[in-house]
Amino acid sequence: MFRRRFWVSLVLSVPVIFFSEFIQDVFGYTAPIFPGSVWITPVLSVIVFAYGGVPFLSMARTELENREPGMMMLISLAITVAFVYSIASLFLPGTTPFFWELVTLIDIMLLGHWMEMRSVRQASGALDELAKLMPDIAERVTESGDTEEIPVSELGEDDVVLVRPGASVPADGEVVEGESSVDESMITGESRSVDKEPGSEVVAGTVNQDGSLRVRVTKTGDETTLAGIMRLVDEAQQSKSRTQLLADRAAGWLFYVALGVAAITAVAWVVAVGFNITVLERVVTVLVIACPHALGLAVPLVVAINTSTAAQNGMLIRDRIAMEEARNLDTVMFDKTGTLTKGEQGVVGVETAGDWDEQRAFEVAAGVEGDSEHMIARAIRNAAAERDIQRAKVSSFENLRGLGVRATVDGETVHLGGPNLIEKLGIERSDDITAFAEEAGANAQTVIYLIHDESEVVAAFALADVIREESRQAIEALHGMGIEVAMLTGDSEDVAKAVSEELGIDQYFAEVLPEEKDTKVEQLQSEGKLVAMVGDGVNDAPALTRADVGIAIGSGTDVAIESGDIILVDNNPLDVVRLIKLSKASYRKMQENLVWATGYNVFALPLAAGILAPIGILLSPAIGAVFMSLSTIIVAINARRLKGVDLSA
Q: What region holds the P-type ATPase A domain (predicted)?
């Protein structure tokens, strides 16, 4: 609505400005004269006032009914005074209409409100990227037992859908048939897949691994995870920052100040020169200069640029107060799994036995796992690819549920699986393999064995949650900003200590139970620290709420996102650094704009009232309007400089 009214009003304003006598005098040109040309400016100005000014008059009525004068009443006062004075000047000799000021004022205010609403829409565009994680098509099971492909949007509660291996779960639901493991890292942040059987709950967007599942849909529409995320857009629109609230209060104060100064001006000039057109000009000049051209744009323009810049950098602002608060943070606490780590398995160690070397072990293991979508299979394939090792050709592949896989390589049988497979085959491990497995187990790492000819363990792979390279950079950057870094994890002391030492974390909390996470945040706050919590799982939600600034990973659960103040679309810890930098820069721009906008009014109002009239300095309404327009340009230029802020980490 604001965009449409802005463009229509702007188009109508061009001829108003072009045919304005004041503008012609300033720029030294003469507009063409033809029958009816004298009415172009007043007629179009009336249309702009009626069309573009109506939203402000309507919102001002609400402020008036609530007896809380603010920005809308101040804007309405100015455009109404400008409109009435300009219309009256058509019939009063010795006065100069400034319809051009009326239309430009309305245009600028429409622009400011459009920019603020547009910033929310740009954040919505980033949320659309999250929506791409969800499947578009579901396989619904019919009454006959067959399946039919339908859009996910057509699914209803109690529908049964077939989820094939490697496919995404299309809706929240309950497993009614089949067994499999599901990658829920996008929901819980935990890298290990979760076994599912009849009665187990599954969440939309998670990825089925190696077995087929039939799932009965339990949640659709607004109850789904995605719908919960999209509600952030509306909440962001309703949220106002402390600086925006300060600007609204400043506008309310300025409303009373303008009326007070106008009344004093009228009385003083009537006493001095009697009631004439000069008194009217003084009062109008005061009320026009009091109009918040610059104040109306001071915060909305910065907020618009702030929100769009944040969205472009993968940050969604749900609570603007938290965005401002981020500039004062002195401690950032990270959840480990899925935040500082990738939340997916990776090969962190390998041990071979006999005449097998590492290259041969990876060739065979990657070949055997070549077609599997299981996260362990992907980890082994990725490790082989990183080492430029080609996969061996395999045949007779067979999945051994709960044990591992079996295949034939060069005519020989090989197995790949965990400890259960070793026990099933009754195979003894070499001393080196045993020691390797024990050390990996002590570090909470998963061990997968490569078995040759059902008789010999020839290699062992240690898998663990891989630390993000961005985590190291983020922690180093935070330390450079004087911010301490803490870590929360439910893992063992050994794992927590190893990760903490590797990343240079200042403080860590290990073996933390889910219900204890928020108490750890409270513990740091009790030490006088301003704490941000970064997490992605259901268990992180209380801590996100408890923290001064809750930062949720966008691919995490809807519970975590609903509890967070700021959402990171990507699982990138460096975005925390960018967030703090943007918070500092945005707050600085808001303060600069508010100081300029309000300071200008404080300086200009006495001049408009005629305090320097005794020495021959007297502002006409038109000149006052020019000065106010210049202040708006300065505020806009200063806000635009936020786009160039360096967010590199």
A: 133-233
Nearest to 100 by CA among 31, 28, 49: 49
Q: Which two tokens stand for residue 463?
A: 């898998």
**Residue 150 to residue 244: CA distance in whole angstroms:** 46
Question: Of 354, 495, 499, whose CA–CA distance to 433 is shortest?
Answer: 354
Output the pTM of the full model. 0.58
Angle subtended at Cα 520 by Cα 516 and Cα 521, rounded to the nearest 5 degrees: 120
**What would the two tokens of residue 7 be?**
């463009």
Q: Which of 78, 95, 77, 91 is nearest to 276 (CA)?
A: 95
Task: Count Cβ atoms within 10 A of the Cβ of residue 275 and give its class: 0-12 exposed, 13-18 middle, 19 or more buried.
Answer: exposed
Residue 567's pLDDT is 83
Q: How far is Cα 569 from Cα 317, in angstroms, rounded to an integer? A: 11
Give the integer Cα–Cα distance in Å for 156 and 571: 31
Which residue in the list 107, 159, 172, 335 is annotated as catalytic?
A: 335
The whole-number average pLDDT for the span 611-633 is 69
Q: Tell the CATH topology of 156-219.
A: 2.70.150
> Cα separations (Å) of 580 from 116, 551, 646?
21, 11, 12
Which is it for strands 160-163 and 137-141: parallel, antiparallel or unpaired? antiparallel
* Euclidean distance between CA atoms 306 and 302, whole angstroms: 6
Q: Which superfamily does 315-340+468-569 belong to?
A: HAD superfamily/HAD-like (3.40.50.1000)
| Element of type H or E holding 634 | helix 621-640
572: Cβ–Cβ under 8 A, 6 or more apart, which residues? Answer: 314, 468, 470
H, E, C per residue of 249-308: HHHHHHHHHHHHHHHHHHHHHHHHHCCCHHHHHHHHHHHHHHCCHHHHHHCHHHHHHHHH
Task: Name the residue among 246, 257, 235 with its Cα closest to residue 299.
Answer: 246
Average pLDDT, the chain: 81
Confidence band for 11, pLDDT divided at 50, 70 and 90 = very high
Q: What is the DSSP letter of 136?
A: S
Instruction: Report residue 513 as tokens.
Output: 């139970």
The question of whether 335 is a catalytic residue gets the answer: yes
Pick the CATH number of 343-466 from 1.10.760.10, 3.40.50.1970, 3.40.1110.10, 3.40.47.10: 3.40.1110.10
